[in-house]
Write a structure and sequence with these properties.
The protein has one domain (about 5-75). The protein is built from three helices and no strands. It has helices at about 5-25, 30-60, 70-75. The longest helix has 29 residues, at about 30-60. The model has no long low-confidence stretch (mean pLDDT about 95).
Length: about 80
């Protein structure tokens, strides 16, 4: 997955998140939608982390393809 693919994935996830949040404003969300929203937030954090890793590796003259998707516990732990 290259930077373009990651950015495209982020865009798709953001669109889906936006749609769910708009739906929540009007009528609330079912439990399945709430769970999906939480998964979207984690997936977005993972994508942004991966993109930052790739850019960091590239800036150091290393191969950006060495970047790996980190587990949810790792990327969600950055907030604390």
């Amino acid at each position: 997955m290259d930077d373009h693919d990651i950015i495209e994935r982020i865009d798709n996830l953001v669109d889906e998140e936006k749609n769910l949040r708009q739906q929540a404003e009007g009528q609330g969300l079912a439990d399945d939608d709430i769970a999906r929203l939480q998964r979207l937030e984690v997936a977005l954090d993972q994508c942004w982390d991966l993109l930052r890793q790739r850019r960091g590796l590239r800036d150091r003259g290393e191969n950006p393809d060495q970047a790996e998707v980190r587990d949810p516990g790792t990327v969600e732990g950055y907030r604390q």
